[in-house]
Structures are given as structure tokens and as C-alpha cells.
Design brief:
It is a single chain. The chain has 118 residues and is mainly alpha-helical. The longest helix has 32 residues. Helix 2 packs parallel to helix 6. Helices cover 73% and strands 0% of the residues. It is elongated and about 65 Å long. The chain is built from 6 helices and no strands.
Length: 118
């Protein structure tokens, strides 16, 4: 482990003292919220959805190759019990986003199917 010296506001110093030996875990989990590719996935989804896509476009939405690759890497590491706590949080965030997008896609497919039968 590496030793790092930080200057923090007094109110935060008191909180950090209470965390004790768990500080590395807290930092890892906090930093994971800024994981570039999981953040990119959210930006891609929000950008796409705010363009008011058609049901057909919704049904075929896919993340960029680098986001898809990261998801695959995390899933593989998870299958092998090799995820760090930060990666667990990242995978959880991506899984939640994917679940929400699947609901949007299912709704779009329902609309497409009902428009074809009309």
C-alpha cells in the first residue's frame, strides 16, 4: 500500500477519523463513481434519449464499442470473482442502466408491433 498525505477541511478530518481502517475502501468506492466508461455510458444513453428517437431507433440502441468492451470485461471478472469493490459498484451502475434501457426498448418494441398490426 502507498502512503499519501492530504490536506482536508476540519469537518471532513473528523469524519475520516471515524472511518479508520475502512478509508481505502471508502476512497475506492468514491472514486469508482467517476469511472470514465460507466460515466460515458450514462452520457451516451442520455444524449440518445434526449434526441427523441423513434421506437425503431430505441429498439436498436447500442452503447459504443468501448463501453460494450468494458461491460464484457467487468462481467468476465465477475464470473471469475476478480472484481474490486470499485468494479463491483461500476458493474452495478452499468447493470442498472442496462435494465432501464431494456424497459425502454421493450416499450418501443411493443409500439412497433402494435403499429404493424394496425
Amino acid at each position: 500500500m502507498t502512503t499519501i498525505t492530504l490536506e482536508v477541511p476540519e469537518h471532513l478530518a473528523q469524519t475520516l477519523k471515524g472511518i479508520g481502517d475502512q478509508l481505502p475502501l471508502v476512497l475506492e468506492l468514491g472514486v469508482s463513481r467517476f469511472a470514465p466508461l460507466s460515466t460515458k455510458a450514462y452520457v451516451e444513453a442520455i444524449t440518445f434519449l434526449t434526441q427523441e428517437p423513434s421506437p425503431s431507433q430505441l429498439a436498436t440502441f447500442r452503447f459504443s464499442d468501448d463501453v460494450e468492451k468494458r461491460i464484457s470485461e467487468l462481467l468476465e471478472k465477475g464470473r471469475n470473482d476478480q472484481l474490486s469493490k470499485a468494479e463491483e459498484v461500476e458493474l452495478e451502475r452499468l447493470s442498472l442502466l442496462e435494465e432501464q434501457l431494456q424497459l425502454v426498448k421493450a416499450n418501443a418494441l411493443t409500439k412497433l408491433s402494435s403499429s404493424k398490426s394496425s
